[in-house]
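Tokens in:
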């Protein structure tokens, strides 16, 4: 015979197991999101050196709709709980004639890092429907950090 005290203990035990499962799934989701962003950014270089421009062009030509050339050199510091922190040294091939980082690659980078932040807590890649960016001053060749928070 099960008493009400036994039911309460069983219920609390069940809740604790559910929380442990959710925590474990959250950790897996976060690491999956970080690995995805690292894989996307690292696929644009060969052996960690200069971008493999020929390989990237071939991948784009073979029907891929995404060129990771814009994410070359992205360093992922962390992706966790709807947040992502990355840095990138702006390479010369993404700058205009005056040495300013072009807005297209900036927008793509913001979109990709945002996707990883969302993926860290949703376990799915979501797409941007509307992306509004205000540029206040040019970014020169050098290092930039990006922090994205979702929710």
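Residues out:
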């Amino acid at each position: 015979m099960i008493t009400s005290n036994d039911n309460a203990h069983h219920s609390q035990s069940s809740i604790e197991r559910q929380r442990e499962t959710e925590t474990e799934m959250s950790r897996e989701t976060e690491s999956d999101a970080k690995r995805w962003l690292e894989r996307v950014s690292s696929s644009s270089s060969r052996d960690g050196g200069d971008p493999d421009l020929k390989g990237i062009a071939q991948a784009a030509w073979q029907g891929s709709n995404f060129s990771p050339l814009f994410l070359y050199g992205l360093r992922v510091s962390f992706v966790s709980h709807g947040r992502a922190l990355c840095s990138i040294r702006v390479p010369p091939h993404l700058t205009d004639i005056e040495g300013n980082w072009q807005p297209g690659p900036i927008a793509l980078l913001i979109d990709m890092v945002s996707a990883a932040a969302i993926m860290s807590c949703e376990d799915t890649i979501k797409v941007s429907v509307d992306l509004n960016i205000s540029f206040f001053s040019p970014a020169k060749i050098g290092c930039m950090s990006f922090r994205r928070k979702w929710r």
